[in-house]
Amino acid sequence: MLSCVAMKSEQLFVLGSVGFRFSDGYLNLSEFECICRALFRNDRGRVYSLSDEQVKDVFEIFDLDKDGKISREEFTYCWNNWIKTIVRPVTAFLVIDVQNDFISGSLSISQCAAQQNGLDVIQPINRLLDTVNFDAVFYSLDWHPSDHVSFIDNLCHRKVHPSSAVSAQEAQTYDTVTFDGPHLMNQRLWPRHCVQESWGAELHKDLKVVDNSTKVYKGT
């Protein structure tokens, strides 16, 4: 069995809770199978079964030096890359672009073919934030400079390549043009939206923003 030396308290707590104690510093295949059966079960105690061959395959993955047993170091690797992600999963909630311009502003999704109401997403998001204790919450925001290449009203500031399917004179919102330069670039043209520090770029006032969350700004 594994020695307690140099093992993290979280590993010791979880394995100790399923009845394992450590002495000789190694796990053999039989002990590894017992740990899998003890740890991997549903909320009713039913074991998620693996065939003998599957258990052996997994054991050999983490028996890095192929000596037929798992050392402390190998178990730590197994813990971090397999066991922990299953028995101690990290939950994250991503809230994507719930910003004024996409709800009621210049690029409101209500104007798209599906004619959805962007406000409809706010209550379900808030309810999840109120009822689920996520380990991490991230809010992404479209965050464009005023001269962003995708804005149709900035088209006049860049040269359109002669090969462009749509000329600068004919281009309209949602068309795709090809800009000239060292590397030709196809660009779809959008209404001006989510300009940095503007009302349109702000998260909607009714959206819950939790403490210790992270905002991710993109589109610069």
From TrEMBL:
Keywords: Calcium, Hydrolase. The keyword Calcium applies. Gene3D superfamilies: EF-hand (1.10.238.10), Isochorismatase-like (3.40.50.850). PROSITE patterns: EF_HAND_1, EF_HAND_2. Residues 50-85 form the EF-hand domain. The keyword tRNA processing does not apply. One of its GO terms (molecular function) is calcium ion binding. Belongs to the isochorismatase family. This is Nicotinamidase. It comes from Lygus hesperus (Western plant bug). The lineage of its organism: Eukaryota, Metazoa, Ecdysozoa, Arthropoda, Hexapoda.
